[in-house]
Amino acid sequence: LGIGSSGYSYFAFLIGTAMGMSAIPVIARVVLEYGLFKTDVGNIIMGAAMFADLVGWLFFSILLAWVGKDPGWYTFLITFSGVLFFGLIMLTIGKRLIDRLFGWLQRTIRGAGSVISIMAGFCFLGAAFTEKLGFHGILGSFIVGMAVGDSVHLKEEAREVVQQFVTHILSPIFFVGIVLMVDFWHDLDMYYAFVILLIAFAGKIIGSYTGARIGGISH
Question: How far apart are the first and last CA of the chain?
Answer without folding.
Answer: 42
